[in-house]
Amino acid sequence: MNARPVADIISTVNGLHTNAECQLLSDYAAQVTDGCIVEIGSFQGLSTLILANGSAPSIPVYSIDPHEQSNSQYSDRDRVIGFQHALRLDLALRIRPVNLTSAEAGAGWRRPIGLLFVDGVHSFEAVKQDLALFLPCVLVGGLVAIHDMNLPGIAEAVAIYADKLEQVASVDVLAIYRKVKA
User: How many domains does the chain divide into?
Assistant: First the structure.
């Protein structure tokens, strides 16, 4: 299956990422040759679809999001909308929804990760916890993408792991790192 142009997905799916961020995610998803892709936080699935579309068909995309109505923005309906888009774009079989919080999923996660995308709860403590739980499973040489680097506490949480991560790209509020040591 050939990847669709990123612009085609962006034009039909509601999301919270710029065109440039989506293109960068797609480009780096295409570099994953081992392990899986893990996404923390999915809203209505734009980034999930971008990652699945950009990656090789043999690389599963695990989308971790409980879709609980914790505020007026997000709800169960968002999961349904994301799944409808995945069906329409013929990407549903490449996506593995995980209906848990990142803390619940991360507590038992053991599968090797080629690309980790952190875009869940946007606080210092949440990003620090997501990285503490999932970074040990990211393969050395694997990728870590962090969204909303402009928000308070996000860059500080990432800085805790500066000895393990080397920034390789950024655009708008998305930064991509390579894991350089275990």
Answer: 1
CATH number, domain with residue 42: 3.40.50.150
Q: How many CB atoms lie within 10 A of CB 74?
A: 18
Task: List the one residue out of 131, 137, 117, 122 whose CA is nearest residue 159.
Answer: 131
The answer as to whether 1 is a domain residue is: no
**Beta-bridge mates of residue 166:** 178
For residue range 80-94, list pLDDT tens digits in order. Answer: 888 898 999 999 999
Phi/psi zone of residue 172: left (φ > 0), alpha (ψ -120 to 50 degrees), beta? left
Could you tell me the residue range of the domain that residue 41 belongs to?
6-179
User: Pick the residue with more confidence: 8 or 130?
Assistant: 130
pTM over 0.85? The answer is yes
In a domain, 86, yes or no: yes
Q: Are strands 165-171 and 174-179 parallel, antiparallel or unpaired?
A: antiparallel
Given a cut of 50, is residue 160 above it in pLDDT?
A: yes
